[in-house]
Design a protein that fits this description.
about 90 residues; Gyrase A, domain 2
Amino acid sequence: MDEARIQLRLQGLPNWTREGNKLRRVLVFADFRAAFAFMTQVAELAERQNHHPDWSNSWNKLVIELTSHDAQCLTERDFRLAQAIDSLLTSQAP
């Protein structure tokens, strides 16, 4: 993706930051169980899209990073998965 396209796509993902060739989002849940349950849901999304995040979990905090390792840059796959993750969060909001 060229820089102009990346910037345009970032506008649609206000909760994500760009760090070099990665999209990053930090989420905080009520507890470990809630964080892990969400990770499981994201894992299902990732499998369906055949695009897998780099992530870490510490008790109730989940850090998700998306990059296309094979392309060594951001691609449309990263933005599609970020949007799917955001949609998943929106569907769970009270």
